[in-house]
């Protein structure tokens, strides 16, 4: 961090993340209930007073109002400021990750936009899965469309910028990467789901989880899928064991923990440190 522009870019990333997460709070509450995300405008659930614009600034307003409604003093759930802060930190972390990786400006901007959209979809998806035990299509199918369209545009970029000495295979590489990731994500987790359902004689995980893994493959390619499956099952098992210890539930009893948030957590690790983890693993296997 050397100049003022870097600090401005960091602040902008943090602020953007907080604003988008503030909107995600609205989406997570309203979309599963079939309500519109734009109207009516935000209002207090208790006294119905509409929230003034200067009381709707992410993070700051919650602190300024000390977590209470300005009109009726009803307590506002701390989840709002938690989600806003999480969104801010995630956007900033991904910006720093790309900025420090030394990509050219235009590539960094393209990857940053796709990464921010996907982080937003994952945040919304995790919260909805946590609340309602379902992953909505706008997250999973939306992610697949995002991944394939992004790599399709990369392929078009190759055709416009590479001369005829570059082979067709190289030009089509981004699209092949995305489609193979989609197939591997869908196929691998679909297989796990099928085997799990046969072994436990009940649905082992939802189709939403399979779709989510397909989306991750479409955006980040086939290698990411393998790492995300490994990480998410580790995180999921750790959380499951923790809950069993906490509630002293018998192992045999079926614990219904949504798997989606753990897949998203695994994907977050991939986005922030995936290349380093794969390199460290390959290095470890060699020696
Ligand atoms: Zn109120």
CA-based gyration radius: 21 Å
Poorly predicted segments: none
**Shape annotation:** globular
Beta-strand portion reads: under 5%
Helical percentage? over 70%
- Secondary-structure element order, N to C: HHHHHHHHH
Q: How is the biggest beta sheet arranged? A: none
Kindly name the structural category. mainly alpha
Task: State mean pLDDT (0 to 100 scale).
Answer: 90
Count of helical segments? 9
Number of strands: 0
Distinct bound molecules: zinc ion
Question: What is the end-to-end distance?
Answer: 36 Å
Characterization of this structure:
There is one protein chain. This protein is mostly helical and 287 residues long. The protein has a domain at 133-287. The protein has nine helices and no strands. It has helices at 4-30, 60-64, 79-99, 105-132, 137-161, 168-200, 207-220, 222-247, 260-286. The relative contact order is 0.09. The chain binds zinc ion. The site of zinc ion (ZN) has 8 residues, from loops.
């Amino acid at each position: 961090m050397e100049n003022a522009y870097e600090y401005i870019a960091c602040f902008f990333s943090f602020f953007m993340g907080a604003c988008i997460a503030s909107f995600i709070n609205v989406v997570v509450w309203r979309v599963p209930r079939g309500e519109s995300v734009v109207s009516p405008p935000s209002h207090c659930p208790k006294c119905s007073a509409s929230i003034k614009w200067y009381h709707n600034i992410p993070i700051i307003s919650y602190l300024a109002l000390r977590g209470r409604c300005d009109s009726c003093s009803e307590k506002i759930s701390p989840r709002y400021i938690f989600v806003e802060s999480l969104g801010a930190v995630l956007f900033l972390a991904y910006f720093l990750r790309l900025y420090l990786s030394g990509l050219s400006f235009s590539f960094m901007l393209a990857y940053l936009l796709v990464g921010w959209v996907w982080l937003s979809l994952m945040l919304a998806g995790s919260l909805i899965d946590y609340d309602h035990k379902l992953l909505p299509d706008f997250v999973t199918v939306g992610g697949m469309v995002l991944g394939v369209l992004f790599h399709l545009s990369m392929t078009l970029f190759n055709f416009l910028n590479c001369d005829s000495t570059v082979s067709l295979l190289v030009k089509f590489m981004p699209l092949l990467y995305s489609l193979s990731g989609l197939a591997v994500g869908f196929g691998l987790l679909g297989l796990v789901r099928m085997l799990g359902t046969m072994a436990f004689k009940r649905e082992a995980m939802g189709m939403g989880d399979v779709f989510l893994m397909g989306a991750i493959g479409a955006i980040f390619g086939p290698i990411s899928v393998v790492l995300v499956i490994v990480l998410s099952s580790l995180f999921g098992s750790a959380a499951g064991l923790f809950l069993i210890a906490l509630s002293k539930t018998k192992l045999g009893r079926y614990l219904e923990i949504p798997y989606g948030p753990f897949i998203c957590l695994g994907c977050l690790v991939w986005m922030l440190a995936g290349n380093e983890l794969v390199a460290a693993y390959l290095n470890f296997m060699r020696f």
